[in-house]
Amino acid sequence: LHMGKTMREDLTVVVKYIKQLYPPEFNVFSIYAELYHNYFASQAKKNAESHLEDKDIYLLLSWVHNFYPKNMRKDHALAKELDKVKLGSLLPSSLSKELEKKYLDSEEVTVNNSLKKCLDKEIQRWKEDKEPEKLNGHFQSELLGIFVIQSIYSGQKRAQDISRAVGEELSQRLWKELPAFLRSYRDAFEEFKEKSKKHTYYKPILIANINNCWNFR
């Protein structure tokens, strides 16, 4: 944050006040911009090559794809000059792709684990002697129907905040995993239907799960 703020503020001073003090052929702005960028990129590369936690990988990728290229161009005059220099990415493409893969693998596992825990909790609730919750007057499982959709959507949103390409890749991965979750849900529900016909709230639980199907569609 400090490096990014310093670079943007200093380059703004260069383009507004210092650049005109030198002959055009000196390319003063380009020299300053490239020196700042090279240092920033070296620090980013150093961090990328060290051991990073999942949240650190996410933050670094956000800087590479989002914060750095966009925040540097918030000032119109600065953006115009930066377009001439074309500084490039903070990380080499190969290293960036490596981090993206680590992030996508981790996020996929996180979402899948979240869905599995959610289904396990739902199955446990079926076993309790308790009537399902009502939403807008209808039996429904807020835990299952809403939480599952939110988990997938939140994962997609986090990935899209890094870049559109990363968001699309995660979406494709999650949509491949979703059928597996739905099959597990169906199998668990079928087992409940067969083995729990004497449950006090058997019928309300059936209705709640049928109503969940609309949400999943």
TrEMBL record:
One of its GO terms (molecular function) is SNARE binding. GO terms for cellular component: exocyst. It holds the Pfam family Sec6. It comes from the Eukaryota. GO terms for biological process: exocyst localization; exocytosis. PANTHER family: EXOCYST COMPLEX COMPONENT SEC6-RELATED, TUMOR NECROSIS FACTOR ALPHA-INDUCED PROTEIN 2. This is TNAP2 protein. It comes from Smithornis capensis. The lineage of its organism: Eukaryota, Metazoa, Chordata, Craniata, Vertebrata. The gene is Tnfaip2.
